[in-house]
Specification:
Elements: H1 2-19, H2 23-57, E1 70-76, H3 86-90, E2 96-101, E3 107-110
Antiparallel strand pairs: 1-2, 2-3
Bound molecules: zinc ion (ZN).
């Protein structure tokens, strides 16, 4: 949730800038930094949401129509990121999972 951190920096930037005087410049810098972090991570956050939504739509087993009862066997090309990950954007969210149904043992791909 680095977009949240960006938001905090953004708000503290507003506070410092509001104080005026010599701290105004550093407040403005904080503000800009917070804005950049927020926008960048928000974009990534939205991308993750889109991937999660897309995967969720495919979480039904083709063998027995059970929803969400599967084990992830493998995934690629990259594991879900929790740090800086230009790779995710570069792949356009091209991320896949191989699911194994807990009920009937069927296997299918989520992508
Ligand atoms: Zn099944």
């Amino acid at each position: 949730m680095s977009w949240f951190l960006g938001l905090i920096v953004l708000v503290s930037g507003l506070e410092v800038a509001g104080a005026g005087g010599a701290s105004r410049m550093s407040g403005v810098l904080l503000l800009i930094g917070g804005l950049v972090v927020t926008l960048y991570s928000w974009k990534r956050y939205r991308l993750l949401l889109e991937i999660a939504e897309r995967l969720g739509e495919q979480a039904t087993c083709p063998g027995c129509n059970t929803y969400g009862k599967f084990k992830v066997e493998s995934s690629g090309p990259a594991p879900l990121p929790d740090g800086g990950d230009p790779t995710l954007e570069n792949h356009g969210g091209g991320f896949w999972l191989r699911a194994h149904c807990r009920k009937c043992g069927d296997e299918w791909m989520l992508k």
